[in-house]
UniProtKB/TrEMBL annotation:
Example GO BP: Mo-molybdopterin cofactor biosynthetic process
Enzymatic class: transferase
Cellular compartments per GO CC: cytoplasm
Organism lineage string: Bacteria, Pseudomonadati, Pseudomonadota, Alphaproteobacteria, Hyphomicrobiales
Keywords, comma-separated and alphabetical: Magnesium, Metal-binding, Molybdenum, Molybdenum cofactor biosynthesis, Transferase
EC numbers for this chain: 2.10.1.1
SUPFAM superfamilies hit by this protein: MoeA C-terminal domain-like, MoeA N-terminal region -like, Molybdenum cofactor biosynthesis proteins, Periplasmic binding protein-like II
Name this polypeptide is given: Molybdopterin molybdenumtransferase
Source organism (scientific name): Bradyrhizobium amphicarpaeae
Length: 654
């Protein structure tokens, strides 16, 4: 394929601009070298105000804890030698001394041979005593003596001074996050104030004319500012104090003034967007004017995240994250978190990692360290890591993923079957109770909602019908939702099942033609007539579906070989078809009734599609599978499906 002149220019520009692409390691090393070593600013805090902060210094115990030898039980302080010969048949009698030692009272009398002193839990052991007998193991013998019928070892029920914390012992290290346990240790030592690292104030700015803050209305061509919220949260998660300054339009003067005032107030500045050097990409140019040494790396061999820009302006780190939210997240965690934690006086983050098998081949770009998000499910022998990314623009992949794996810059793929190390997003693996892999449908959410409310973890991985079938055959899921039309038998789904799989009827979705309700061309027509009318009007644009979609088969049949304008617009979802028509990018397309209703489009029904489940028979007895089948057959879920525009199929309630 030859390039058109415009893309030639663009690619030449890109080459010039990213000429000095650094490896991930090199970029990080240069960034850190420009910032460290430096002292972590600290401040004194009262214990109660230190929660969640990092200690700025090592703390040595100033006293012994407990400060004296202490009784652990209610009983009598004794000399163990007096009771050496005591036993079931040999009671020893001890005379009680004339004092009792409750908590907080210093003993005055010595425990002489043949005597005992009553003592409470927490009371200091009197001179002469070396052990304590529990009150339950004694009998009163008159008013001023006790009988003991068991021997005691020296030290029994005594906590010695300094046995918990010894004076001079390292109590807590610098960098420790102060939680309730740490506060307890400090309080036990009588420490009322500690030196904590002052949280670095990190200013956060989103850039882009298209950005709108959540809570405000979205105009055409606008999107919600996602990075502002994630970056601010990730800063707080890693020891910083985020100050979100909103989204600034792509306007050089406005952006420069926002960056200047941010840097005047904050210890660090994190921007997002505008790094790919399109017409509106200005931040990197402004950085050159903000301080020395300026840009350290722009263009790093990471995927996602190549446009990441790292700079230092007069000692303060300035970072521009890529605009796509997932790219922004990965680069932030991989390249910015290490620096932020150092500034915050925290030790490097210790990520939890697990080993898992990758069931499918993952292609990778040579020369860039690549991060791939994965969902973990339990396979026949061990964990399986499904790549769950939908491309760098997809934010949901983060929510559905359990962690990520890294493909080395020198590899062009990760072969199927690779045992890979997965870095977890949370400290623990949460293996789902039910795994559904295949085609996604909004109706599915209505079934799984029941399970989620019952406390079951359901993982639904959308890979399409065929991908789901393959996963089911490998035994990697419990159920594969499918809607596959078989041309020869003119039936859905059943012809695709193999040994070990069983078909569970799901529901029917009505497919039909969508159009805008005010479009008179389609008024009162049947589906075939509507398509004929559309084909007659050269100005009428269609939106198609991707190859392999069940809907596509229906469309091609209706078109009968015609290729009207819009045929090559082939989105991968029902919702995208509805959006294209609603937004006037197309005039008609085919989607399912609930989706058309949700967007308020006109709908001409054509055919019913069967959305069923291929159940892995070997997994049928699992409680979560049974719960799913029960939910699917329940009156409640069937009613909910009907309300949403689906027609539940006959399900065996057995
Ligand atoms: P840019 O780096 O500014 O060219 O942005 C690349 C892509 O990321 C564009 O599709 C932007 O609309 C998108 N993007 C940039 N900033 C944000 C943000 N704060 N939230 C969500 N998407 C963004
Ligand atoms: Mg932008």
């Amino acid at each position: 394929m030859s390039m058109n002149p415009q893309s030639q220019i663009r690619s030449a520009l890109e080459q010039e601009q990213f000429l000095k692409i650094l490896s991930r390691e090199e970029a990080l090393a240069r960034f850190e070298a420009a910032l460290f070593p430096r002292a972590v600013p600290s401040e004194k805090r009262r214990l109660g105000d230190a929660l969640g902060l990092a200690l700025a210094e090592d703390i040595t115990a100033p006293i012994d804890v407990p400060p004296f030898d202490r009784s652990n039980v209610d009983g009598f302080a004794v000399r163990s030698a007096d009771l050496a010969a005591a036993g079931e048949g040999a009671a020893r009698s001890l005379t009680l001394n004339g004092e009792t030692i409750p908590c907080g009272t210093a003993p005055r009398m010595q425990v002489a041979a043949g005597t005992a002193t009553p003592i409470a839990t927490g009371g200091p052991l009197p001179r002469g005593a070396d052990a304590v007998v529990m009150v339950e193991h004694t009998q009163p013998a008159g008013s001023d003596a006790i009988d003991v019928r068991r021997a005691v070892l020296p030290g029994q029920f005594v906590s010695y001074a300094g046995s918990d914390i010894a004076r001079g012992e390292a109590l807590l290290r610098a960098g420790t996050i102060i939680g309730s346990r740490e506060i307890g240790m400090l309080a036990a030592c009588g420490i009322a104030e500690v030196n904590v690292a002052r949280k670095p104030r990190v200013a956060v700015i989103s850039t882009g004319d298209e950005l709108v803050q959540p809570g405000e209305a979205l105009a055409p061509a606008e999107i919600y500012d996602t990075n502002g919220a994630i970056v601010a949260a990730a800063i707080d998660e890693n020891g910083g104090e985020a100050v979100f300054l909103g989204a600034i339009p792509d306007d050089e003067a406005k952006l420069e003034s926002a960056m200047r005032s941010a840097l005047a107030e904050a210890d660090m500045l994190v921007l997002s967007g505008g790094t790919s050097k399109g017409a509106g990409d200005l931040s990197h140019r402004i950085i050159g004017r903000l301080g020395q040494p300026g840009i350290i790396a722009h263009g790093i061999a990471l995927k996602p995240g190549k446009p990441l820009c790292l700079a230092v302006c007069d000692g303060k780190p300035v970072v521009i994250l890529p605009g796509f939210p997932t790219s922004a997240m990965f680069t932030f965690h991989d390249m910015i978190v290490p620096v932020l934690r150092k500034l915050a006086g925290l030790p490097p983050r210790s990520d939890a990692k697990v080993s898992a098998t990758v069931p499918v081949r993952i292609a990778s770009e040579l020369g860039r360290t690549e991060f791939v998000m994965v969902s973990l499910v339990e396979g026949r022998d061990g964990l399986i890591a499904y790549p769950s990314g939908k491309g760098s623009g997809a934010i949901t992949s983060f929510a559905q993923a359990d962690g990520f794996l890294r493909i080395d810059a020198l590899a062009d793929q990760m072969p199927a079957g690779t045992e890979a190390e997965v870095t977890l997003f949370t400290p623990h693996v949460r293996v789902p109770d039910l795994v559904i892999v295949g085609s996604h449908c909004t109706g599915l959410d209505l079934v799984t909602a029941q399970l989620a409310h019952a406390g079951l973890i359901v993982r639904s991985i959308a890979v399409g019908s065929l991908g789901g079938l393959a996963a089911a055959k490998r035994g990697e899921c419990d159920l594969a939702p499918i809607h596959l039309f078989d041309d020869r038998s003119e039936t859905y789904n059943t012809p695709y099942l193999v040994e070990g799989l069983e078909l569970i009827p799901g529901w029917r979705r009505t497919q039909g033609i969508v159009f805008r309700k005010d479009d008179k061309r389609f008024e009162r027509l049947g589906a075939k007539e509507a398509v004929a009318a559309a084909l007659e009007d050269a100005a009428c644009i269609m939106v198609n579906r991707n190859q392999g979609a069940g809907t596509r088969i229906l469309i091609d049949r209706l078109l009968g070989g015609a290729r009207p304008e819009g045929y090559w617009n082939q989105p991968r979802s029902h919702n995208a078809v509805a959006a294209a028509v609603a937004q006037h990018r197309a005039d008609w397309g085919m989607t399912i009734a609930p989706v058309a209703d949700a967007v308020g489009l006109g709908f001409i029904p054509l055919a019913e599609e069967h959305y069923d489940f291929a159940l892995v028979r070997a997994r049928k007895d699992r409680p979560a599978v049974q719960a799913f089948l029960d939910a699917l057959g329940s009156d409640e879920v069937r009613a909910a499906l009907e309300r949403a525009g689906f027609r539940p199929a006959q399900t065996n309630k057995s």
